[in-house]
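Weekly modeling sync, notes
Attendees: S.R. (lead), two postdocs, one rotation student

Agenda item 3: backlog of single-chain predictions. S.R. asked that every request posted to the team notebook include the full sequence so nobody has to chase files. The rotation student volunteered to paste the first one in as an example of the format we agreed on. Action items at the bottom.

Example entry:
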Amino acid sequence: MGHLQGSSSQAVNDVLLPPWADNPDDFIWKHRKALESEYVSENLHHWVDLIFGYKQRGPAAEEACNVFHAHTYEGIV
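Predicted structure, as returned to the notebook:
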C-alpha cells in the first residue's frame, strides 16, 4: 500500500491502471522495457538538454517548445 506524497499520510489503495496494463506488475514491466530501450538510450541526451541544459530557457527553449508560464520558473516572482 502506498501513501500520498507531501505532508499527507493518506493511504492510496486502488489506482486505476491504463487499459494497456494488465496488472501492476505488467505496468512496471512495460515502463522498464520502454526506459531501457535502445530508442531511449539514443535520445536521452535530448531530454537532458530540455530539463537541465541549454534548452531550459531562452531562445533555445522557445525553439524547442520548452517554455512554461513565467510563474513556474524559480526566481521570477
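Discussion: group reviewed the output briefly. The longest strand covers residues 2-3.
Action items: rotation student to repeat for the remaining queue; S.R. to check formatting next week.
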